[in-house]
Amino acid sequence: MKVEHQLFESMLKAKGITKKAFSEYTNIPYYTVAGWKKSGKVPKYAMILLKNMPSVKTITTQQLLDAGFPRAILWNNDPSKEVASDIFIVATLRRAYNDFVIEQILDFFGTEAVLAALLKHKDKVSDTLIQHVTKYIDNTVQSV
């Protein structure tokens, strides 16, 4: 299964990653990554690799909207205001941590970034929230 190249481009932009950096990180030749634009499709494995790449330190609401986040789960309505990624993760999960929201955040930021944000701000989140997120991650890993 392949995904639209436009979504791949949006995710790269939102994470602040260039095609060259993605190529180097994944060991996929740059001409292959650049060639996906011509075909208009990107292999699903590339989206998984991109999802697991470390993301930028700050994020804007517009970048998240461009990457496909539903506006309803965003707590910041200013599209140009930059927020630290870990603050965004924790604030969004504190606002609503149902499975849909957790899935969206994990898909965009990656498991490591989400867990690191929760550990960094463990004094600001409940044990229940951390347990719910880790249980969701465990269930997702077991189902794969």
Could you explain how this protein is built, in words?
With 144 residues, the protein is mainly alpha-helical. The chain has two domains: 51 residues, 434 Repressor (Amino-terminal Domain) (Orthogonal Bundle); 86 residues, no CATH class. Helix content is 65%, strand content 8%. It has a two-stranded antiparallel ribbon with strand order 1-2. The protein has a two-stranded antiparallel sheet with strand order 3-4. Helix 7 packs across helix 8. The longest helix has 17 residues. The chain is globular and about 45 Å long. The model has no long low-confidence stretch (mean pLDDT 83).
Helix content: 55-70%
Structural class: mainly alpha
Mean pLDDT, all residues: 83
Strand content: 5-15%
Largest sheet: 2 strands, antiparallel
How many strand segments?
Answer: 4
Please state the overall shape, judged from the principal axes of the Cα atoms.
Answer: globular
- Low-confidence spans: none
Head-to-tail CA distance between termini: 16 Å
Q: So how many helices?
A: 9
Q: Please, how many domains?
A: 2
- Please give the radius of gyration in angstroms: 16 Å
What's the arrangement of strands in the largest beta sheet? 1-2
